[in-house]
Design brief:
Largest sheet: 8 strands, mixed
Distance between the termini: 17 Å
Order of helices and strands: EEEHEEEEEEEEEHEEE
Radius of gyration: 17 Å
Helix content: under 10%
Length: about 250
């Protein structure tokens, strides 16, 4: 991965609906959505490596959290919404969700329902050309937001990441973890690990899916990641990619 700064760290991030407080003490890091509803760069955006990640904390009592178990593919539609959020695909409920109204709260700021913050996640290069973030105890909101609610960790939160990248050919993006994860490339669903489940893995092979995703070597595209941690007792989060440069939208 090429970086425009002098240190090799990628800060993964997502843009939400209002300015957010950084968990790393950096204050407001997101300029918020622009007039067209598209994610805007953080105030200190400098190209490669200047991305951010949005975390939204939920209470255990939220109807989509803690009460369900099992794989649940197809929760979201194939196409990312015009607001760069997943579109709930069902006319009613799914095996692990209770409907559109509650699902739409996952990646939108809703006073009293969730609490929003940001967190830096470093990617490590090893071997050369492969970049990994891995945490088998991924609890970035311990004792924050609504707190641990009687648990050893804060298990009830979502993660949202927005970026763009140049497709050079041969890239992959792999996720390993729990619970739900959806990866969109060029606003098309490329990876679906929906549901409340143990550790699972899936890989996006950009060349193999180029036609379905509508991507062409040499062009630049969105890559958007949506994750949810919805149930005790584990939280695993691992991303591996050979994309050489992410750029803030």
């Amino acid at each position: 991965m090429r970086f425009s700064t002098s240190f090799a760290i990628l800060v993964l991030a997502a843009c939400g609906d209002r300015p957010k407080q950084s968990l790393d003490g950096g204050g407001d890091v997101d300029a918020g959505p622009g007039d067209d509803g598209q994610p805007q760069p953080p105030n200190d955006a400098q190209g490669c490596g200047s991305l951010t990640a949005t975390l939204r904390d939920f209470q255990t009592a939220h109807p989509d959290f803690e009460d369900f178990l099992g794989d649940d593919r197809g929760i979201v539609a194939i196409d990312l919404g015009a607001d760069n959020k997943p579109v709930y695909a069902s006319a009613g409920t799914t095996p692990t969700t209770t409907g559109k109204t509650t699902y739409d709260q996952w990646y939108r700021d809703v006073a009293g329902t969730n609490m929003t913050s940001t967190k830096a996640l470093p990617l490590v290069e090893a071997p050369a050309g492969t970049f990994t973030f891995s945490d088998n105890a991924f609890f970035p909101l311990d004792n924050l937001g609504f707190g641990n609610q009687g648990n050893a960790h804060n298990f009830h939160f979502t993660t949202e990441i927005h970026s763009t990248f140049k497709y050079n050919g041969g890239e992959i993006f792999q996720f390993t973890g729990d619970d739900d994860v959806w990866v969109f490339v060029n606003k098309k669903l490329a990876l679906d690990l929906g549901g409340v489940h143990g550790v699972e893995q899936a890989t996006v092979d950009f060349d193999a899916k180029a036609a379905a995703l509508g991507i062409t070597v040499g062009s630049t595209y969105q890559l958007d990641v949506f994750h949810a941690e919805r149930h005790t007792v584990e939280s695993n989060f691992k991303m591996v990619t050979t994309i050489e440069c992410f750029i803030i939208q």
